[in-house]
Each structure stands twice: as C-alpha cells, then as structure tokens.
Amino acid sequence: MNRMLRPTSLAAPCPGPFSRRTLLQVGGAAFTGLGMADLLRLQARAAESNGAGKTASDNAVIFLWMPGGPPHMETFDMKPEAPEDYRGVFRPIKTNVPGIEICEHLPRLAKLADKYTLIRSIAHDFADHGGGHKRFMTGRDPKEPVGFINDYPAVGSMIARMLEGRRSASGVPQYIAGVDSGRQGIDTFSLGTAYLGPAYAPFWVVGDPSSEGFQVQNLGLDKRLEERLDDRSTLLGGLDRLRREIDKTGTATAMDSFNQRAIDLLTSPAAREAFDLSRESAELREKYGNHPWGQRAIMARRLVEAGASFVTMVIENPYCKQVPWIKNGTYNWDSHAVNCHLFDDALVRLPIFDRTVAALIDDIYARGLDKRVMVVVTGEFGRTPRISHQIGTQTGVSQPGRDHWPGAMSVLVFGGGMRTGQVVGATNGKGEYPIERPLTPNDLWATVFRHLGIDYDAAIPDHHGRPMPILPFGEPIAELV
Questions:
Q1: Distance set, CA 228 to CA 26, 28, 198 (Å)
Q2: What is the pLDDT, as a whole number, of residue 267?
Q3: Under DSSP, is residue 407 helix (H, G, I), strand (E, B) or coil?
Q4: Type and span of the H or E element at 27
C-alpha cells in the first residue's frame, strides 16, 4: 500500500568525517572520551541540519534479537497433529490463557501468557541470513539477497534519527546494543546506518555482563585516571593531545563543548549507575539467570528506565562459563543438522531463554513499565517445518535439524500498553505459511514506531536530499494497539 510521504527535512545529513573505529574505540579514558565527544558532535550537527524537534513521549523499546532464526515449531507454534517428520519430539503444554499452548520447555512463559502476545503470521521472502537480517532490520527488500551490509538504515538508526531531539536526564545514549565480544561490528547483524551516517549508530555494550568484574568498555575508565577525575584540565589536556595525534589530516574541528559533555557523561553518576548491574539485588539477578542473556535483559530494563529509547540486546550463544559447550550444540539459533542436534541444543537454550524472558516480563510489570516500555522478541526468520537429517560437522553422526524458513515465524511481544493474552495470526497444519492475518516485519516496525511517537509515514533525506520513507509500507498491528 502506497502512502504519501511527509519529509522531515530536505537538508542532507552530516556525512561525518570519523570512522566507526574512531567513534567507538575501546580503550583508556582519553580515547573513550574522544569517541563519545565525536558522537555527540555528529549528533548535534545532524540535528541542526535536519531541524529535529523534541518529542513529549518518553516511551521506549527493548528488542531481544535471536540471530540465526529460532525454530517456531519448537517454541510458540507447535503442531502436535502434524506428521512425525514435521512436529518433532517436543510437546505443547497449556498456558494460563485457555486455548494458547507453547513448548513444554518454556514452563515459566506458559504461566505468563496473559501478559504477552504471540504473533504467528509474520513472513518475508529472504532465506539467507544476510538477506533475512537486512529485510527484517531495514523494513525493505535488500538489493542483494546475501551479505550483511544493508542498503538502507536499520530501524534502530532511524529511531535514533527521529528521536535525536530527546535527551535523557541521566545522559544515557538513546540507542544501545549489547552483544558478545567480537560481535560488535556494525554489519554483523545488519545494523548499518547507510545514508544516515555514523551519528546514528548504536552505543555498544560488549561482552558478558554476567562475568565478574564486567565493565562497559565505552564508559569504563582506567583506575589510575579515576583518581584524577577532579583535575578536569588534565583530562581535557589528554584529549587535546590525542586529538592532535589523530588529526594530522586536518579533519577534526574544535569541540571543547563536546569534550565537556563527553566527560560529563563519563563521570555522571546517573549514567554510570544505569549500566551498573551490581545495583540490582542478588535475588533479582538470579531470577533473570546468572547468564549473559539474563544479565543483558536486566541491563536493558535499567537502560530504558534511565531514558534510553531503543535498546537491542542480542541473545545468541547460550554456551558460556556457566553453561558448558555440548558437542552437538551450536553458537546461535541456526539449527541446521550439520550445525547441531536440533533437540539436544534446544534443551540447553530453551530453559535459559524461558527464564530470561519470563523474568523480564515480571520485572516490566512489577515496575509499572508495561505501558511505557514495549518489548519485542524475535529472530530474522523461522525454520523449515520439515525436519532434515545430516551428518553433523562436530559430531560426525546423523542428527536432526531444521533449515532457514522465512515463510513463517513466531514473534513474542509485550508491554507498550498493548493488548495481551492472545495469539495474532495462524499458520497451516504443518507450520509452513500463514493462513490467517498474514503480516510482514514492516507491520511490526510500524507498531514500534507508533509506540515511540514516530510518524511511520515520514521520510528521511538520503545523501542526495531525496526523501526516503521510514517504511515503504506497513501498518500498526490493529490487534495490539
């Protein structure tokens, strides 16, 4: 469906002279401060050129991303009456909502079905991980069906652009992404900013927040320099010297005020406390699970409470210090038979997933955030309804698995003042494709934009000043709103 576009501005956005590496370089205090200052400067320049306004809304979104593609028929869209080579070995259990059933290995979520909605009819056409990521993350068909470098901005960057006039009192960045170490590349999950430029990239929280001594690298300070924070001129002098070192090409400009704001962010108790999980009770942290997934989820809740608008937390690898690797397991949710034994791997990851998401649901409601904060839990696609068997790369024996399947997937959503305790859409008896209420990722994103107070009919100018629609199509899901 075509909609009339309402450009937010026809001015070309600031291209930004700094590389991704320069903006978010991890290291000592001086380098950290410079990266934050550059990001603040780019955001301010873009805001000036684009004429962004402030929004009265303080709504926020937590986006739990499950890369690889979780199996819908082992989680939220089970088909116990399907042929054996479709239904698998797991069985459904009843939830606290009559008529809604989910996997037996999600017992905590089964007790909370009245507080979330399952969408079973979202689908698209891109079966490659790269194409699937790009299609889901940007709301557009990618020009190339493979590869993770997106042609259009990821939704998180569009949200950061549209809400750049919003300022949190704590100084917490508006757009944040939490990932495993080594997975923070802008193209790993197709989070590229495309024509919006580096000012709208996420602030990375890298590593395992459940590990002892975890520190947010982009905010962490060298202990020797922490003792010298009162000497503001010393720290500024270090920034100036470092700036001169990297500015041999003359690309940097004066940014004293941004250095000051970056230092204020680094030393702001409110900002630092938002990332500090030690301020949560041991009981609550244990409820989420002493695991990277659980601690990322509790951090996401802390960050949106502190004023962040869009927080992506990647729940990818279940195997860590607390959970030993199994030979027939796999890193992410990509459950091909060559990668893992579908059911043995699921027996590891599903209980962790169940605990994490159930704790987040309880926490969001207990803190009265269920109207302000919307949570979306999904991957880029589902898995093939029919089970295949192949020789496992690690095991050397035949094992069951499911391949990529964009024709059907399940998405869990809650909070945001949405209607809950329901299922939206349905797939056929074998879980192959939607037969009721067919939807696309764009309808989900339109719902997200609506919650954030963003006009999903608006357009953002590209490098050439041409108005590019935030979403080329899609409408908020009526059953939710």
A1: 20, 13, 31
A2: 60
A3: coil
A4: none
